[in-house]
Amino acid sequence: MVQPTSLWECHDQRHPTRARLTLVTADTSSLAAPDAAAPAPTTASKITDHRRKYQEAVGDRDAAAAAKQHPRGKLTARERIAAVLDPGSFVELDKYVRHRSHGFGMENSRPFGDSVVTGAGTIHGRQVVVYSQDFTTFGGSLGE
Known about the structure:
- There is one protein chain.
- The protein has a domain at 44-140: Alpha-Beta Complex (2-enoyl-CoA Hydratase, Chain A, domain 1), CATH 3.90.226.10.
- It contains two helices and five strands; from the N terminus they run ββααβββ.
- It has helices at 43-69, 77-84, and strands at residues 4-10, 21-27, 91-93, 116-123, 126-133.
- A three-stranded antiparallel sheet has the order 3-4-5, covered by helices on one side. It has a two-stranded antiparallel ribbon with strand order 1-2.
- The longest helix is centred in the middle third of the chain and has 27 residues, at 43-69.
- It is globular.
């Protein structure tokens, strides 16, 4: 099916009000999306995909960190925050931040998050902002 598009051309650019106009049409059917195109992603599918990617990126690292910290009698940064805040109230900030260091092999290891876990939540219903040093990421050293 031909889907023409219209464009009016002005032949006298100096005096467009007195110009003679010509209608130009073009076939844009080759630019149209194919009939069997995948449906546009929904917000729910984007959120599900986002959570899956976050779990792949951070969840495995957190499990490995917990396996190292627990035998030493220590909690991870997120576990310490969860112990202080009301259940389910923590909203982490900058959990996808990554360092930009190049040198000493740092460009080969770019985990999500910094060595400080920051966010907001509630304690006994009161809004608070919290942070906790994460010693499992570069030994707790701070980025930018």
